[in-house]
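G., the chain you wanted modeled:
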Amino acid sequence: MPASAATAATIYPFTPNTALVDAFVARRGGVIGTGGKTAIAFRCDHHLNQFESRLLPLHQKYGIPVTIAAMSQMFRVETGTNGSTNLSFPRLQALALANGLEIANHGATHTDADTSQRLREEIVYSRNALTASLPKLPLELFIPPGVGGTQYLGFAGGKTQDSFQKYLAGRLITQQHAMSTGYVPGYWPMTGNPLDSMGNVHVGIENADYARRGPDFIAAARRQGRGVCFMYHPSLVDDIDLEAIDGFFAWCSRERDAGRLEILTTTGLMMSSFSTSSRHDLLSATKSFVFGWNGWNGSAANWARRTDSGVTYARRGALSLPLFKDVPVGASAGSARQLRILMRSTTGVRVKVEVLDPANPGSFTAAKTVTLPPAAGFQQAHQYVVLPLTGTPLVRVRITPLSGGELHVQEPRLLAA
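Predicted structure as tokens:
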């Protein structure tokens, strides 16, 4: 190691806020194993008017979560068509809970901070304001804004891990947040230790050519046993770009359903591990209904358990009620989760899948309607949610047939994402 590198490592050791990191890990139940599959994440940088009208429908269509880089003053400073004024913090929070939208601190105003006081305004006060405005969501992640001038007094977005100790901006970020992205080059490590991902960079897909190259970036990461975070600014996405992103999302969805790819939030990608399959499931530690109903209301709701070719599933009957299970949220409150259900119908059927607060559905309900065409094999359905940080001690996963027809359901998973 060159002397200069050794000196830098000695003078500027990376020092995380261990209490915040421990809570960050506990919320997700530990490592998010992918069993050798590459994991990816998507990030949207503010401009929420265009996000809600143009990009969010694609995320909903393909069941793909996204991390929103949000500014505490964005509804004041981002005006016009490409601004954020069509939304509000209550609306953003509701969208986040129901769609698995992780919210990250992106500063207060997206402008340079050239004094220590201004740095505190952009990093510390911004997080405080976002936390107050989004009380049901954890603010664990900082996403450095690209700014000119002094670039946060030399921090420049965090180009090395020691930037987070060397510069005041980096120290403030680390003191106030469990994790941060940045501009450290390369694909994401997928070691299961989130600190290894501190400061990792993104790949932009707001340009159609880059969006079409998305599979190539994933292939390159896969060869290295690593992951990728993709980013776009909604205001820079024109119709041609949007079509390319749509195609990339469709490809990612197919790869996920084929078992070759995992799609996580940005912080989920930080917790991902290429070398294990261990992944926290809030619903069950078992692999199927083979060991019983495991807390589901199957018998009471007139569903039957059946086993074909080694696969155990719940079979809907003529008088069946909705199938559901209630589970305490506990330490998982505030975590992004992926509801993953395998279903099949030989006749075709419409099904509503939900994650909700059974005591107060109005405060938290995430629902998706799935249309199953007639098929002999099981098909995957995905719904990403964020479990409320406060006010919802218990969640219910519910499966309700909306039309007549045969329906088989393997035991659902509510996985850390």
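The radius of gyration is 22 Å.

Shout if anything looks off.
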